[in-house]
Specification:
Layout (H helix, E strand, L loop, with lengths): L8 E10 L2 E11 L4 E5 L6 H7 L10 E9 L2 E2 L7 H7 E4 L10 H11 L6 H14 L3 H4 L12 H13 L5 E5 L7 H14 L4 E5 L3 H7 L2 E6 L2 E7 H6 L4 H7 L5
Parallel strand pairs: 3-8, 3-9, 6-7, 7-8
Antiparallel strand pairs: 1-2, 1-4, 4-5, 9-10
The protein binds adenosine-5'-triphosphate and magnesium ion (MG).
Length: 256
């Protein structure tokens, strides 16, 4: 895929260690605006670890150490000047298991804009909540029950609520770590549709075990194996014409 825009995020020479154990080895990758990038590879190869370096979620793991350079719009996100709370609003995250707060649907979405000062009035906040729920494809299903608990929704609805929560603070990048693995095929299809719609607004990075899903939703695919980035390219090339033997073995189901 040809793009002239500069990368939204760039990782260069990234190593990640948990104590003495190295989980990511010398990974360099660019991620672009308006594109979905899929991370694939066998269990334990480091997909989640690398994804979490992109918004410094590894900071919360005491034994984790990150080396190398990662930038967002050219700005070093590991610089001591970087405000991590701000960073995580700019680079939002959706997890494998939907994890709404045990609060109302409204509060789940309103919390971020409120703490980040993104709404000047109650009317503003109402507007942000409605817009975010609409973008997440959930508004019609919840508009009459905004004060119900977020945890009372179905799994697929909870995941769309978590996406609405991430969107509410106007992120630039959305990281998704196996967002559909706890969902049934219908809820999964809804999330995939949503990813298509969101693509034009954000840079999206999705970890998935499901290669059909990677092929359906992404434009770029990165194949990881044993902490290494083996191959990164256009999704169509990775799936139809991989350059590396290890990629071919994985996508044809020979291991993993
Ligand atoms: N908090 C942690 N402490 C120590 N080691 C960890 C920690 N988290 C992950 N690891 C190790 O780092 C390596 C990469 O794990 P990671 O979770 O990133 O893999 P993954 O590709 O996301 O796997 P999966 O597909 O199963 O989610 C594994 O060997 C794992 O055991
Ligand atoms: Mg993982």
């Amino acid at each position: 895929m040809i793009t002239n825009a500069p990368p939204k995020m760039t990782a260069h020479g990234v190593n990640v260690f948990y104590g003495p154990k190295q989980a990511i080895r010398d990974v360099s990758i660019d991620v672009y605006q308006d594109q979905v990038t899929a991370f694939i590879g066998p269990s334990g190869c480091g997909k989640s670890t690398f994804l979490r370096t992109l918004n410094r979620m590894n900071d919360t793991v005491a034994s984790a150490r990150v080396e190398g350079e990662i930038s967002l719009d050219g700005e070093d996100i590991y610089s001591p000047d970087m405000d991590v709370v701000q960073l995580r609003a700019r680079v939002g995250m959706v997890f494998q298991k939907p994890n709404p707060f045990p609060k109302s649907i409204f509060e789940n979405v309103a919390y971020g804009p409120r703490i980040h000062g993104l709404a000047a009035s109650k009317a503003d906040l109402d507007h942000v909540v409605e817009r975010s729920l609409k973008r997440a494809g959930l508004w019609e299903e919840v508009k009459d029950r905004l004060s119900d608990s977020g945890t009372a929704l179905s799994g697929g609805q909870q995941q769309r609520l978590c996406i609405a929560r991430a969107i509410a603070v106007d992120p630039e990048v959305i990281l998704m770590d196996e967002p559909c693995s706890a969902l049934d095929p219908i809820a999964t299809a809804k999330i995939e549709e949503l990813i298509h719609e969101l693509r034009g607004r954000y840079a999206i990075v999705i970890v998935t075990h499901n290669m059909q899903q990677a092929a359906r939703v992404s434009q770029r695919t990165a194949f990881f194996h044993l902490g290494n980035l083996v191959e990164y390219g256009d999704t169509s090339d990775i799936f139809t014409n991989p350059r590396e033997e290890r990629t071919k073995d994985y996508i044809t189901g020979r291991y993993g």
